[in-house]
Amino acid sequence: MAAAESPQQNPTSRFEPLLRAFLVVPLAIALVGSCQSTPAGKAAIDLPDPSHSGPVNLPPPQSGLPPDPMHGQKEEAKGYAVPKPPLSKEYWPCSDCHNESQPPNRTRRELKDDHTNIHLHHDEANRWCLDCHDAENRDVLHLASGVTITFDESYRLCGQCHGTQFRDWKSGIHGKRTGMWNGDKQYLLCVHCHNPHSPHFKPLKPEAPPVRPNLIR
Amino acid sequence: MLTEKPETHSCSGHAGESSPELTDEAAAQKLSMSRRNFMKHSAIVAGAAAAAACSAEDLEKFTTHRLREMTQPEVKALLKRLEADYKKKFKKDVDVRATPAAEGVKFGYALDLSRCIGCRRCVHACVKENNQSRPNPDGDRNNPIQWIKVLEMEKDKGIDLSDANPYYNPEEVPREGHFYMPVQCQQCENPPCVKVCPVQATWKEPDGIVVIDYEWCIGCRYCMVACPYGARRFNWAEPNLPADQVNTNTHVLGNRPRPKGVVEKCTFCIQRTRAGRYPACVEICPVGARKFGNMLDPKSEIRAVLESKRVFILKEDLNTQPKFFYFFGI
What we know:
The complex is a heterodimer.
Chain A (H helix, E strand, L loop, with lengths): L1 H4 L10 H21 L104 E2 L5 E2 L4 H6 L3 H9 L6 E2 L5 E2 L3 H4 L24
Chain B lengths: L11 H6 L6 H8 L3 H19 L2 H8 L8 H19 L4 E3 L9 E6 L8 H9 L19 E6 L23 E6 L8 H5 L5 E3 L5 E3 L9 H5 L6 E2 L14 E3 L11 E2 L5 H4 L6 H5 L5 E5 L6 H8 L2 E2 L11 E4 L3
Parallel strand pairs in B: 1-8, 2-12
Antiparallel strand pairs in B: 2-10, 3-4, 5-6, 7-9, 11-12
């Protein structure tokens, strides 16, 4: 307001309206802009602050125990009530085998010794295991930035490439919701419906068709 | 004024009262009873006989109001009577509610045609949830009812309802070159079915659901003719609903077991949605193609669809204004 008062010291100035416009308009824009950027204006389902995750979120690898699945997750999971990821009981935790005894082999290759049941059909020409799985700690995934995330947050990994689907998933358009339309909703992770190694939705056997009216007796 | 003529035939009741050798005219004169009086008296006698023959419950049913005009105690009495009827019929406790519409709620539904694979999980979940009549080929009269119909159409032809096939049954869906369009009650804002009902047994609730009063429906099926979406079904026979398959969570205007001779249809699972839950078809859909919510809530999924996708409605030119939207999510 102090800036706006300055032209009033010289009320005879014929440039007053112009000056006022020059001084007040930018001030107003700045004020409105600062209001919009306050955290209160953000939607509850906004992406978590990237500073929130990062190396500090690494689960303790040395203990040999599976990481706390909710580690680093409590803040981010607001609005997404996601169930546990469908990790294979046979293989999880990955660090049972992928530990100090088995140093990571970073050479891109076809897997012949183990995991032969996994047939990558997901941009396989350009990607392979360690693009998503973390070489240093197999119990976590990593984003393109190198930031590691737990399997519970795998939607962040998928959302890197599938941005439109991720946006729709956050607003409830993509994927299934169960629960209450006006209350707690159960989200699903991408991997509950899409096999991450072969994500195309598999065909299903249809349920019985209706009876034709001419066959109703 | 009716005039008594010698050739007039008499009904048996009148003949029985007169001596056999007298003609009808003579008998009428003898009893000094006009035809009008006779009809009046016999109607009273017949009415009294009928009232005596039926139980107090039947009489109550006959003299009841339509649900919309009932007072709270009358609704309560109706629910109690229905629950007792179902207890007798199915040998289990069926919970019948009359939950009213919530304030500030207008339900909307959206279906993503690029996701739907035509697996018919929704059709059968709906049958189970809403106590629809099951197929009964060995019964006297088969009366299978499904509120949702999934149409299979060719991608080359686009949406062509006249050439759609609801009876597809391949080993696996989706079939190459085909897409699927489930159709159910569109819950129109301007419902033609409501306009034609001669007894006002069907109407639009404040939250937008078009409902049917099964106690008041006379089964004339005008509404079925009026509906441009073929969404209404008629109970041609006593519904075949095995007691072990009854869903006991019911609403009086929704999925409570219906009698023979009434029309029924999708109610957006009124028994679930008025309790805050999603409809059964939304929860069963394996591809998440079905979206449901309050259109007046800016944060709801349905609003997200309406604001960010290009939705369309079926037969827009009829000005029925459905609250059931279709869209292609990809």
